């Protein structure tokens, strides 16, 4: 299953934002153990660097991003994705870009803590705990 992760879910893990980090940790572990095929939007990576550099420092941010790039595939942001986002009915351009990048890689779902931002989405949108409850995700190697 191809799962695109919103920036907020990854930040929950990297910044240990309780109580949300517990579900997010299980989901990232499921990517690591290949229970799900994890994707990040290319713009998520740049946003993570910006936010992490301010929070934990440039070197720690670089190390975290290197780890993420080893775990996740990247959903491209190119002219077609940007044009689709501009033409979409999403009110927030950043959310539209993330959604259109998910569509471009044929993602099955998007996991976010802001599901209300994706009410126009045709892909299934899950909160982390909701996804875990609906799917058999252990976060451990099967």
Structure description:
- By secondary structure, the protein is of the alpha/beta class.
- The protein has helices spanning 7-14, 21-32, 42-56, 58-71, 79-87, 93-104, 128-134; strands at residues 2-5, 37-41, 73-75, 109-111, 125-126.
- The protein has one domain (2-134): Rossmann fold.
- 54% of the residues lie in helices and 12% in strands.
- A five-stranded parallel beta sheet has the order 3-2-1-4-5, with helices on both faces.
- Helix 5 (79-87) crosses helix 6.
- The chain is globular, with a radius of gyration of 14 Å.
- The model has no long low-confidence stretch (mean pLDDT 92).
Describe the protein's topology.
Blueprint: E1 2-5, H1 7-14, H2 21-32, E2 37-41, H3 42-56, H4 58-71, E3 73-75, H5 79-87, H6 93-104, E4 109-111, E5 125-126, H7 128-134
Parallel strand pairs: 1-2, 1-4, 2-3, 4-5
Helix pairs in contact: 1-2, 1-3, 3-4, 5-6
Helicity level, as a percent range?
40-55%
CATH superfamily descriptor:
5'-nuclease
What is the annotated CATH architecture?
3-Layer(aba) Sandwich
Task: Write the CATH fold name.
Answer: Rossmann fold
User: Total domains, how many?
Assistant: 1
Question: Beta fraction of the residues?
Answer: 5-15%
What class do helices, strands and sheet pairing give?
A: alpha/beta
* Chain-averaged pLDDT: 92
Count of runs of 4 or more consecutive helical residues? 7
Tell me briefly what this model is.
The protein is an alpha/beta fold and 142 residues long. Helix content is 54%, strand content 12%.
